[in-house]
Amino acid sequence: MTRTLVVIGNGMVGHRLVDALSGSSWRIVVFGEESRPAYDRVALSSYVDTWSSADLELAPLSGAEIRLGEKAVSVDRERRIVVGASGVEVSYDALVLATGSVPFVPPVPGRDLPGCHVYRTIDDLDGIRATVEAADRPGRHSGMVLGGGLLGLEAANALRGMGVSPHVVELAPRLMPIQVDDGGAGLLKRLVEKLDLTVHTGTSASSIERDGSRLIAKLANGLELDLDVVVFSAGIRPRTDLDLGLELGPRGGYLVDAACRTSDPHVYAIGECASVEGMTYGLVAPGYAMAEVVADQLNGGTKVFPGADLSTKLKLLGVDVASFGDAHAQTEGALEVVVNNAVAGTYSKLVVSDDAKTLLGGVLVGDASAYPSLRPLVGKEVPAALLQPGGNAADLEMPADAQVCSCHAVTKQTITDAIQSGVACDVAELKACTKAGTGCGSCVPMLKKLLTDCGVEQSKALCEHFTYSRAELFEIVRATRITTFTALIEKHGSGRGCDICKPAVASILASLNNGHILGETQVSLQDTNDKFLANLQRNGTYSVVPRIPGGEITPEKLIVIGEVARDFGLYTKITGGQRIDLFGATVDQLPEIWRRLVDAGFESGHAYGKALRTVKSCVGTTWCRYGVQDSVGLAIELELRYRGLRSPHKLKSAVSGCARECAEARGKDFGVIATENGWNLYVAGNGGFTPRHADLLVSDVDTETLIKIIDRFLMFYIRTADRLQRTSAWLEGLDGGLEHLREVVVDDKLGICDELEAAMASHVSDYADEWRGVLEDPEKLARFTSFVNAPGTPDPTITFRAERGQRVPVQLGIPEVVR
Amino acid sequence: MTVVCDFEVLRPEQGVAALLPDGSQVAVFLTADGSLHALDNIDPFSGAAVLSRGIVGDRGGVPVVVSPVYKQAFELATGKCLDEPSVSIAVHQVRVRDGVVEVT
Ligand SMILES: Cc1cc2nc3c(=O)[nH]c(=O)nc-3n(C[C@H](O)[C@H](O)[C@H](O)COP(=O)(O)OP(=O)(O)OC[C@H]3O[C@@H](n4cnc5c(N)ncnc54)[C@H](O)[C@@H]3O)c2cc1C
Ligand code: SF4
Ligand code: FES
């Protein structure tokens, strides 16, 4: 007989349990109070980058009956029945409680006022956003986060992303009191204050009052803050509002044994709502471990919860923070080895036993690269080198049983086994077969290192002719000023080249402004599209796309396009990029078509190139009732600035005149959305095969700053991306991700921004229309013939038929193949 | 033999197309080492007459032209498709006489 398992709570841990039981004989019914499918709460803060909840969704589960938006309101343990808010009753053979936590809100008068929020669910974030958007303060908004722990700092960062300057109020004398010691917290405070956060430690809010549309918070130290929004982030409490008459742990939570079973043998509790032998855990990894324990038990196993490592490593507002083991040196006689480098902005403390032999724990701030090597050494002998000045923990050998991925409890052994048996040869395969790296992602650099240590060459070679990656070749070409493919392959490659390296090098040469792409030394490198400055279609004809900056066109020019299309019999279609594509031109016709277009003032639209395509726009303030900036004007300015820019892949852009986003800028490589105060810049979005919403890079900047940052962003991408890597894949592969990108192109951490801007300035000043260049040069023109021995004779294989009043290609017969 | 063009007109690592009296087409390539090759111009995978516009290079040292449509490589000397060994295209005779390139 089928047994029924009821799970209450469709959060991260409940989801994991159902996943672990897939394929088992249990019938599973899940009650989920939230109306959306289970999502990645750990990554909740990234919701503000895209405001797309789909980006956070966990892998969908099959085989379970998941009742979204149905809160479990009571449980009858006698009859083994769970009752849902809709009145539905489900009887169970086993019940698992996975109700998570509730945010703790200190009893401050005014805490229930509109504009006060907690920070736990997607709905909470939507609420915060609504408050911020409704605020009518000119300039940047102002907010307060109550609580300066890990979550509080994350919430503060999220507020920044919404254009709010946050005050962080922490009762303890330092930030992140649980994880970090005084020395580390001091540095942390200095680093985060640079980022527009105001930190108030050793105080708390004594009241919050509403004043018109504002909130006024009074702090215990006498300060008064004038605010638009308040976020409580003062800790969490296990959620036990569903009263089953079960015993609770000393710090709340349903009390369970090491098998995660309550005193009722049919009822289990896992995740943040569980108190395992009296201990509660506010991290996802221990919750996952509990889910695995219960899945095993339900399948007849005997697994128990082994306890959990509460070490954490995170990047808060771009600052690395890690703490592990006995971070506060509470072990009897523990010694501390502290290195505080105020200049470099790094702080590290190792806690060792009284004989200095055993590593007990530590704290790292500013640079946590040593964390993956150090954490597994806790409780083991300290390598002597580590205690010497200059000792570098990042180079230490890890023991085989060391946990590399704490989110999924994967050891080094498991990973090296997967690599050595040949099951996994790269990070993606390791993720698929071990799950390591699929949680918070902080262990990915370690996975890369293990691959290298195991001798797996992470080949970045462009093709068989170059052992370098595209980014490396770019640097070589830039540094050596080599201007021809022949010279490059002779010195730095082998063989004659191929359809991969030739266009890639041609693109690099073009990005570095080496003259017309059909110049004598470059023409043989180009793909047919670039060779004929048009897009090859299936029957060997080409399509023609004149540039229409921002999608704005006069009736006169529109008529010219219509006339050209009519006179040459071209199939005509409006593209998604707000311009017009003319299909069916033969090689011989291209120059004649373009002569007419150039005479009418058109330029190449680069639809054929890995280059800037279009900058779409909506009508903005000029016409639209809602517009707040001149989106068309900016789109035209951007399109004219970046036209002709060659890049690793095509580049698309758009500008919307207000937050309604009619131009779909978030689906572009760089998209701009107008705000009351300026512009928000989003980067690395795309449609296509794997759509991705662009991430917010900077907000509320003026036009000059905006253009400066786009210049840097584009040049940084052009220099460092792989061949045919769109900005989205590039950003996802970038070590340090969006934060790192921001450090490089906004904060100029690498000191290369001047160079990037200069490179763009030279692109802008050297730009020349490629089609005009062809029309003015008889030698280039001569290439536009179908047959060298019969110029002007049309290709007899090209024939057309009519469809809906236009000419379309006749399907080509596949000619006989000689075998 | 059909006249293609003056040898001068050819550029290393590039192709040109020529029309034969029977209406068929041939792609003629000059490689970097100075040798000449002629193949059918029609790409058997797309049916389009475009091989002369492909990128010339080598695969593991074997000189090839890569179709610009779906990117299969054809060996210049034999017409064999390296990506789909069961497919090959016709090779034509090519020579230079008095500075003029000719094919059959
Ligand atoms: C902003 C933020 C950042 C975080 N960062 C990290 C991090 O970096 N690392 C880390 O390890 N952890 C982090 N966490 C903690 C992590 O998200 C939690 O540990 C994890 O989500 C716990 O999973 P859970 O399933 O126990 O609870 P939850 O994910 O909270 O799920 C519980 C679910 O049960 C539902 N529920 C409750 N009662 C009922 C009922 N009666 N009927 C039906 N449904 C009910 C709730 O609505 C909720 O959806 C973070 C948390 C937040 C909020
Ligand atoms: S994005 Fe805003 S300004 Fe632009 S058309 Fe839409 S509503 Fe109008
Ligand atoms: S440690 Fe979080 S994914 Fe591996």
From TrEMBL, chain A:
Listed EC numbers: 1.8.7.1
Alphabetical UniProt keywords: 2Fe-2S, 4Fe-4S, FAD, Flavoprotein, Heme, Iron, Iron-sulfur, Metal-binding, Nitrate assimilation, Oxidoreductase, Thioether bond
Recorded metabolic or biological pathway in which this protein acts: Nitrogen metabolism; nitrate reduction (assimilation)
Leading EC class: oxidoreductase
UniProt cross-references to Gene3D superfamilies, sorted A to Z: 3.30.390.30, BFD-like [2Fe-2S]-binding domain, FAD/NAD(P)-binding domain, Sulfite Reductase Hemoprotein, domain 1
Co-factor(s): siroheme; [2Fe-2S] cluster; [4Fe-4S] cluster; FAD
Residue ranges constituting the NADH-rubredoxin oxidoreductase C-terminal domain according to the UniProt record: 311-380
Domain Nitrite/Sulfite reductase ferredoxin-like, first and last residues per copy: 537-598
Occurrences of domain BFD-like [2Fe-2S]-binding (ranges): 404-451
Location of the FAD/NAD(P)-binding domain: 5-276
Database matches in Pfam families: Fer2_BFD, NIR_SIR, NIR_SIR_ferr, Pyr_redox_2, Rubredoxin_C
GO molecular function, one term: nitrite reductase (NADH) activity
Nitrite/sulphite reductase 4Fe-4S domain: residues covered: 609-749
Role: Catalyzes the reduction of sulfite to sulfide, a step in the biosynthesis of sulfur-containing amino acids and cofactors.
NCBIfam families reported for this sequence: nitri_red_nirB (TIGR02374), PRK14989.1 (NF011565)
Family classification: Belongs to the nitrite and sulfite reductase 4Fe-4S domain family.
Name under which the protein is recorded: assimilatory sulfite reductase (ferredoxin)
Organism: Lentzea indica
Gene designation per UniProt: nirB
Automatic annotation (TrEMBL), chain B:
Gene: nirD
Presence of the UniProt keyword Kinase in the record: no
Keyword Nucleotidyltransferase on entry: no
Organism, as annotated: Lentzea indica
Keywords assigned by UniProt, alphabetized: 2Fe-2S, Iron, Iron-sulfur, Metal-binding, Nitrate assimilation, Oxidoreductase
Domain spans labelled Rieske: 2-103
SUPFAM superfamilies recorded: ISP domain
Record-given protein name: Nitrite reductase small subunit NirD
Entry-linked InterPro entries: NirD, Rieske-like_NirD, Rieske_2Fe-2S, Rieske_2Fe-2S_sf
NCBIfam families: nirD_assim_sml
PROSITE patterns in alphabetical order: NIRD (PS51300), RIESKE (PS51296)
